[in-house]
Design goal:
Blueprint lengths: L2 H14 L7 H8 L3 H12 L3 H19 L4 H7 L5 H12 L3 H7 L24 E5 L2 E11 L3 H14 L10 E5 L7 E9 L11 E5 L2 E9 L4 H17 L3 E3 L3 E6 L15 E10 L1
Antiparallel strand pairs: 1-6, 2-4, 2-5, 3-4, 3-8, 6-9, 7-9, 8-9
């Protein structure tokens, strides 16, 4: 089974179990990849998180049930995972723009959200530069935080802003953005704003020291203004390189973004020539 088929199977599993408890590790297991990379790739390829997809599909189905059946609204709420009529009504109204009662009694409009179908176009002449690098274990000094996959896209930029606003950037400039999910099956991961350091370096208060294991890394260069250039490269890794790579697969629950010094560029990280990289640990298939 290839990587694309695995993702399709995971989406089918979600669709077949919308009224059951859905655990991320079970969904990822269906895709035969770790929860870490399933959630990361899903968000990049689809434009929303796995949790958002599940919520929207459930609310769309709930809207149809409210409009087309005589089921009690409380039963519909419980059917799609809501513990109380109040929480269901709030979520339903945010999604559909009308309350369940208004839909049923007044014929208010409901919104659809169709099941997702992943389609990839892998043929053609897209060029993607990368190199395979053997790198020994190395140590970083970092400012660490724990983030849920659901909120990471909005929380991590805030984490970076706070890092500099609180003066932590004077001790750690931020050469690396390090994602760590060693279990590769959690709903959360550790994220570090980090710099290289010696293994015996003194750790300042409020920071931590982490050793990144020895890996073979697939290193992907990015050139252009941040964050758009790096986001585009990351999306291509998951939509083009990984699905089509016959030699390598993901080896562990790590990924690293490497940033060069903004002082080397006239417009800092908004410069058209700003250079950064994405590192993915890989192993031979």
């Amino acid at each position: 089974m290839n990587w694309i088929d695995s993702l399709d199977d995971a989406i089918s599993y979600i669709e077949n179990n919308l009224t059951e408890e859905l655990k991320m590790e079970d969904i990822a297991r269906t895709a035969n990849i770790s929860s870490f990379y399933f959630q990361k790739s899903f968000g990049l390829l689809c434009g929303f998180t796995v949790g958002e997809y599940i919520r929207k599909r459930r609310l769309a189905c709930a809207g149809s049930d409210v409009a087309a059946t005589e089921e009690k609204i409380i039963d519909i709420a419980l059917k799609y995972g809501y513990d109380s009529p109040d929480s269901f009504t709030k979520a339903f109204t945010r999604f559909h723009g009308s309350t369940p009662t208004a839909v049923r009694k007044c014929g208010a409009m409901i919104r659809s959200f169709a099941p997702l179908k992943l389609k990839f176009s892998l043929e053609g002449g897209t060029i993607m530069d990368y190199k395979i690098v053997e790198k020994e274990a190395f140590t970083v000094l970092g400012n660490a935080g724990t983030f849920s996959y659901e909120k990471a896209a909005e929380k991590i930029p805030v984490f970076w802003t706070e890092h500099y606003e609180t003066g932590k950037g004077e001790k750690v400039c931020g050469k690396f953005g390090v994602n760590i999910d060693e279990s590769m099956g959690s709903d959360e991961f550790e994220y570090l704003i980090a710099d290289d350091c010696e293994a015996d370096a003194v750790v300042p208060e409020g920071f931590c020291k982490v050793t990144i294991p020895k890996f073979t890394w697939a290193v992907f260069p990015s050139k252009g203004a941040m964050p758009q250039a790096l986001q585009e490269v990351t999306k291509k890794i998951f939509s083009e390189w990984l699905p089509n790579c016959k030699e390598y697969e993901i080896a562990a629950g790590y990924s690293i973004e490497m940033y060069t010094d903004i002082r080397d560029y006239a417009k800092g990280n908004q410069d058209e020539n700003y250079y950064s990289e994405v590192w993915i640990p890989v192993k031979k298939k």
